[in-house]
Amino acid sequence: MKRILVTGGAGFIGSHLCERLLADGAEVAVIDDFNPFYDPAVKRRNAALLARRAGFRLVEGDIRDRDAVERLFSEGRFDAVIHLAAMAGVRPSLADPLLYADVNVSGTIVLLEAACRHGNPRFLFGSSSSVYGATSRVPFREDDPADRPVSPYAATKRAGELLSHNYHHVRGLDVVCLRFFTVYGPRQRPEMAIHKFARAIDRGETVPIFGDGASRRDYTYVSDIVDGVARAMAAPAGFHVYNLGESRTVGLLEMVRLLERALGKPAKLEHRPDQPGDVKVTFADVSLARTELGYDPKVPVEEGIGRFVEWFRAEARGRGNA
């Protein structure tokens, strides 16, 4: 039975991943600090769902706390570490870049050091499409330079990749960096666009559209991301970088129209100036992940938005808001 550590496992992607790993028969330990970036009660509900399953253990702690991380690794050898814990979001990183550097860079080093001291488990690093920056080449390929990030968040994610490569090169750690493209689905963080827009449309509030609405994103349903992560655990030894996306772009206004149809309500649009740190397009070339991992995204955005809205309405009913 595999023993796996998932950092940030009570969050959006992490909680779905833990469900998959537990269903596959693994023992899963999660470290999460339940920070107030968004309502910690959301993550605690995710953790409560996981706690019902055999083989799950939750440790409340901060990945920057070297003593806490050392205790966690000392309690038993992990076969893999899946590092998802991070300060997330492009725009918030502009307001507090020091915090993003501390958590996303220093915290990653703490985990890499602990992994090397405790048996060199496979290390999977949850990266982001934001590392590609405002590149003019689409779709994005893993061998693109990724040396011009346009936000502190993106820079910290690229730094995490480079640090992971250093620990592979110097310490022999097997590393897989996974660049996620605009993940959405049930339990999505409340500040992310699809969740934020659904809430506004449902309440009859205005939907903020930054710029001309022509930006495009590679929206990827969470189950496809989770499948990619699970497959990456069996990647060849060494250092690897893979894009995980749907490999299709959808315009911002098109995404709003999909939400309107799924919710059965019109959106009230409010156009605002472009935001610093945003890019015009994200688009994943996933041919490498298809070839080496067997990655095959299956949920088109039209279906995924419908699934998200079903969850969104169920959540509202459960809280007496519908």
Query: Uncertain spans, ≥5 residues at pLDDT below 50?
Result: none
SSE string, helices as H and strands as E: EHEHEHEHHEHEEHEEEHEEHEHH
- What is the CATH level 1 assignment of the domain at 3-183 and 221-246 and 283-298? Alpha Beta
Q: What is the count of β-strands?
A: 13
Number of helical runs?
11
Task: State the secondary-structure class.
Answer: alpha/beta
Radius of gyration equals 19 Å
CATH architecture of the domain at 3-183 and 221-246 and 283-298: 3-Layer(aba) Sandwich
Word description of this protein:
With 322 residues, this protein is α/β, with parallel strands linked by helices. It has a domain of 223 residues: 3-Layer(aba) Sandwich (Rossmann fold). Helix content is 43%, strand content 18%. The protein contains 11 helices and 13 strands. It has a 7-stranded parallel β-sheet with strand order 3-2-1-4-5-6-11, sandwiched between helices. A two-stranded parallel ribbon has the order 7-10. Strands 8-13 form a two-stranded parallel sheet. Helix 1 crosses helix 8, helix 7 packs across helix 9 and helix 9 packs across helix 11. The chain is globular and about 55 Å long. The relative contact order is 0.13. The mean pLDDT is 95.
Secondary-structure map:
Layout: E1 3-7, H1 12-23, E2 27-32, H2 40-51, E3 56-60, H3 66-74, E4 80-83, H4 90-95, H5 97-117, E5 122-128, H6 152-171, E6 175-180, E7 183-184, H7 193-203, E8 206-210, E9 216-217, E10 220-221, H8 222-232, E11 239-244, E12 250-251, H9 252-263, E13 268-272, H10 287-293, H11 301-318
Helix pairs in contact: 1-2, 1-8, 3-5, 5-6, 7-9, 9-11
